[in-house]
Amino acid sequence: MMIPGSNQADWAAYVGQNGQQVADALKAQGLHPQILEEGQPGTKDYKPSRVRIIVNQAGIVVQPPTTG
């Protein structure tokens, strides 16, 4: 698995990778990843350290992770 840097611009490289592995990589950077399936609602509150990872039913990341 490719591990991009902590710069959010690099996070597009996570698309197509296993969501749990991406979450583990982001957690190692001191962030708080949250895995959501496509279409699953997230909370409306904003937390800068939270990173949402959107995956398909197979657990594959389908869009670049986002903070909030």
UniProtKB/TrEMBL annotation:
Instruction: List, alphabetically, the InterPro entries matched.
Output: Prot_inh_pot1, Prot_inh_pot1_sf
UniProt keyword annotations, A-Z: Protease inhibitor, Serine protease inhibitor
Q: Which Gene Ontology molecular-function terms are recorded?
A: serine-type endopeptidase inhibitor activity
Which example biological process does GO assign this protein?
A: response to wounding
Record keyword Acetylation present: no
Pfam name, any one: potato_inhibit
User: Gene3D superfamilies, from UniProt?
Assistant: Trypsin Inhibitor V, subunit A
Family designation: Belongs to the protease inhibitor I13 (potato type I serine protease inhibitor) family.
The name of this protein is Uncharacterized protein
